[in-house]
Amino acid sequence: MIDRRALVSRHDPVLTPGVEGVLSVGNGHLAASLDRTGTQTLAPDPGAPRPAVLAEWGWHSLPAPDGPQREDHVRRYRSPRGEVPYMDLVGPSEPGADEGSARWFRANPHKVALLALVLVDRETGRRLTAEDVTLERQHLDLWRGVVTSEFLHRGQPCTILTAADPEHDVLAVQVSAAHLGLELRFPYGSEDWDAAEDWGSGDRHRTAVDSGTIHRELDDLAYTVEVAGAVPSLRGEHRVALEAPGGADDASADLDVVLALRPVRSPHLPLTVGGRPAPVLPSAAARAAGGRAAGGAAVVGRSARAWSQYWERTGALDLSASGDPRAHELERRVVLSRQLQRVHAAGRLPPAETGLMQNSWRGRFHLEMHWWHSAHFPLWGDVETLRRGMDFYTAALPAARATARAQHCRGARWPKQIGPDLHESPSDIGPFLLWQQPHPIHLAELCRRADPALGGDEALQRIVEESALFLQDVLREDPDGALGLGPPLVGAQERHVAERAQLQDPAFELAYTAWALRIADAWRHRRGARDAGELTAIARRLRSPLDPRGRLRTFRRGPAMTRSDHPAHLLAHGLVPPTGTIPDPVAAEALEDALADWDWESTWGWDCPAAAMTAARLGRPELAADLLLRDTPKNRFDTSGHCYQRPTLPLYLPANGATLAAAALMSGGWDGSGPAPGLPAHWRAQVEGILPSPGPLAPLLPLPRPSPPALQSSSTSPGRHRS
Q: Architecture of domain 4-62+107-302 in CATH?
């Protein structure tokens, strides 16, 4: 039996001077990321993470400008179903690019930093700076979910303890330094690509204090911060001092503060809050007495119980029996990634790629990344978290159905880059991607495999069916009766964007679509649907992912493979379980070809884990381990577990989620694989509670010709007929 506490605790992040990392506390729907003081006091270095307090409900929109309309960015493209509309963007969509009249629609709503915890010198009232502080040690106790920060200020020792409630939007901050005070400072929202705060627009929002409650208003967002254990008082524009209950004269008192954040007004509350209970603070009497017994200590206790239960009850991978340094590093990345994903990605919404630490793409989420963010949860024994997040698709169904109808398809077309308003961002890439479409089928299948009762979940059944109907209708029927994808489209590699009007048949998407249609058909069979079998017949007619020379490359037919960025074609035999359309020797040749001269320096944080999954499926555990830990610029995990990508993306949750998905496949295996098929045998891995991933499907025999079945089912799609 694995000693769970020993496994987790040996990877506690400890940050000392010169060690990179940023620690966070949170619960998936609210998180506080911390500088080395345990607050957000110190200015971050350029290109470093910008710690903030963010919540799933904390979305803000600037007033819309007069003139531009969302419809201005709709452009029609020729498709096999006639001309269809896409929310397009003329010009590049990279950070800093001139977005023109599309800017407001790409930037609103955006997540906003809800507050900043700021330490001040009680004697001078001045905010601490890096020059005032001598850093010593900051420690995240993973077993308890508590961060302890120790430093010197004016030669005097200071200790800050920070924790988050496991269920409610509540933070606890304990300041053990009688000469330090604590303030809350409040910013406005920002339209900048990677910023969650604007400190220079004080006249555009409102901060007021009424007894123990702080009231905040920013255009369409209003919320309160209820304070226990201290007395809040307004000290300046959007500055609130938190004084010890004994008042300013109580110079010997440490602070033990509890902050409860409550959304009051936002157009997005039904989606972002739902039926989650409101936080509960100590009674007024307890608050007047300092709130110590029922305040910070209670939050810390709840955090400790919840985190210890999480580590005890979910999956574990113990590689301590190996002397191979790769094993220790993989174990470390797994433990830290699980903590980060639970803090930043375990809520009701798909997370931003920087989670709840700072904004990227203005805090908006990308559904093609949702598999990387969430597939690992049921594989590691936490199906409840993924099932909670699947309600997002139910909420998004009306908008996704409308997009599908406009494109002459049934079902639901899931968008790529959106916020909680469910409007797709204008983009030259996002609306043309297809690999997010099978994800809900795959995620629902992982839910069902973890908990068979979820196979009867009507909401999941609806999500699977609606996703499959669009996949069925979006297919192109060629004169020979075979089926393909596009045009228009952009492949998962996100190259050849300028050719999106002509591109067709990317290999990964062909393989993923065929697999997802067969899985959706199995869902039909289990519920006794009359049209069970139809989707499998359609999958049989799909084009092979292989090019005319029988190789696995980016496109079946199309532009030559660009050998940089994502080697997305490898996903067709890794993330996608084998279906017989890509023989193992062909997948092995594609992997060796990519290893030979791919520009791995340009790959992203999920590419090495994805390639490791392909190697594991091919029975090459040593190569899988090497690929998962390959030293590339965007596959290096710092002491806190974050994976740097570039200055505007100093952390990247898809890298953490992909590492967990790959490690689950390598250690938990897949149907019929045997134990730990993707880990070197000499590592002597101990595996507990990690579920097998989906295994290979039996190859489909080709249909006899010339009588292929009709692609369209008996219920015709709106405005579309196929003979």
A: Distorted Sandwich (2.70)
